[in-house]
Amino acid sequence: MKEGTPCPSPENTHSDTFKGAAFIAVWCSRIEIWIKQARSSLHLLGTVFLVYTFNSGSKLPIDRTAFAFDRLDGRHPYHLIITMVNPGKGMEDILINDIIRACLAIDAKAATIYEILSKSAEIADLKLFWQRMAMEERKHIRFWKELSRLAKKGMVPQVFESPEQVLADIRKIEEKTRELLEQSRKGPDITTGFLIAYRLEFYALHPAFETLFQSAIKLDGSRFNPEDEYEEHINHFIEAMNKYGRVTPEIELLGESLQRLWKNNKILARQSSIDELTGILNRRGFFNLVRPFSHLAQRNKYQIGILLIDIDHFKAINDRYGHQAGDRVLADVARILRENLRTSDVLGRYGGEEFIIFVAPLSPESLSTIAEKESLSAMAEKLRSKVEETTKRTIRVTISIGASYGRIETDAEKEVLRLIALADKCLYDAKEQGRNRIICFSALSPE
Questions:
Q1: Do 29 and 156 belong together in one domain?
Q2: Which of 11, 253, 257, 418 has the lowest tally of Cβ within 10 angstroms?
Q3: Residues 77 and 101 in one domain
Q4: 3-state secondary structure of 44
Q5: Cis omega before residue 249 (within 30°)?
Q6: Structural domain that includes position 194
């Protein structure tokens, strides 16, 4: 094994400098551990600097290569180790999978902790409770394994603004969970057992967990809502904390604080992304969720669709029935749209009486743009007819829909905005032509 290659300081580094340099290929996610282990054999001293190479024209690293520099003496100021990570795989995919695997490791340790607490419990009801907690953690483990499988296929978008920081946070939690596992093996009493479990559940309230739960709802037509699953898990724990709170006031107080923290996190999450009147995503929440899915569609060459929906003559409804009735109409239309969409589609309130739907993917294997247009038009017609039919019994409502679809080739965010502009033009034409109709535009070139 070569010791390394002298090189200039990291500030003046470019990937071309290292052509032909000796390198050791290791997983970048394990570089710090590897360097610590290799430090003595490679005679490395001082501080390690990690630098990422960037593909030209891209804001994010594509082929993640970390250059580790280590100060030696005055004659050879730096030595080099190059670590390469699966050059064919994007950094975004690597980071999101690392985060998911760390979450999996945390819940795996949690399941073991609850199994240990169950075996050491002397009260029958408490033993059953810990067994139930372990069973629920095993459900979470299956969820993380499935999400990891999807991530390996490139189907999980990068949903974090600072994934490196999120990964660092989750790994710290994993280390703390390992410490809790060691404490649980010492045969704790009831109070200590609940304190261990409390810290465990407190760590699981890191925002990354809920962010992944939310994104998973839209992936692969998920059949269950992991957020609801986890909320039920938290509630079971809090109920037990309250039940056994008679043992010590401290346990009861911990249960109340955990419940308050969970509720506050939920409220803050909803306030930042949910429209209070309709219960669907607000404009900000819609674009925050669509952004990673549009990048995912770009990488996988999926076609996406945009539906812009406007309630016909909404001002007349307000004038005739009052603004409270108008609010009920908005909520009813949002509910009808939500109930008739696929789990993979993203619905939001665009503003006023307008709604927006992000449709992806649009059968990427289809052979013609005609098939895509028929698919999107059929979906739009289903929504239009459902709204008209369902509202006959109350205040009759019709909607106009502008639709567009296409493949994202370059800048994902700009091209989504372009498709929205095209759908907006179609919506304008639908209203000009009499309303209660659909107009669809293809942004694809005819093949």
A1: no
A2: 11
A3: no
A4: coil
A5: no
A6: 91-273
Q: Are residues 48 and 154 in the same domain?
A: no
Q: Are 197 and 133 within 8 A, CB to CB?
A: yes
Residues 288 and 268 in one domain: no
pTM of the full structure: 0.60
Same domain, 348 and 379: yes
Q: What is the CA radius of gyration of the chain?
A: 27
The secondary structure of 374-422 as a DSSP string is HHHHHHHHHHHHHHHHHGGGSS---EEEEEEEEE--S-HHHHHHHHHHH
140 and 41 both lie in a single domain: no
Q: How many structural domains is the chain composed of?
A: 3
CATH number at residue 219: 1.20.1260.10
The label of the residue with tokens 């024209």 reads 57
In a domain? residue 447: no
188 and 141 within one domain: yes
User: CA 91, CA 165: separation in Å to the nearest integer?
Assistant: 14
| pLDDT tens for the chain, residues 1 to 447 | 333 433 333 333 334 333 333 333 333 334 444 445 444 444 444 444 443 333 333 333 333 333 444 433 333 333 333 333 333 345 666 788 999 999 999 999 999 999 999 999 988 999 999 999 999 999 889 999 988 988 887 777 777 878 889 999 999 999 999 999 999 999 888 888 888 998 998 888 887 887 788 777 666 555 556 677 777 888 888 888 777 755 566 666 776 777 777 777 667 666 667 898 998 989 988 887 787 788 778 877 788 899 999 999 999 999 999 999 999 999 999 999 999 998 778 999 999 999 999 997 655 444 345 455 668 899 999 999 999 999 998 999 999 999 999 888 888 888 999 999 999 999 999 999 999 999 998 765 444
Would you say residue 50 lies in a domain?
Answer: yes
* Claim to verify: residue 142 and residue 267 sit in the same structural domain: yes
Query: Which tokens belong to 23?
Result: 């390198």
In degrees and rounded to multiples of 5, residue 74 shows phi and psi of: -65, -25
- Residue 20 contacts residue 6 (beta carbons within 8 Å): no
The answer to whether the beta carbons of residues 348 and 355 sit under 8 Å apart is yes
Q: Is residue 181 part of a domain?
A: yes
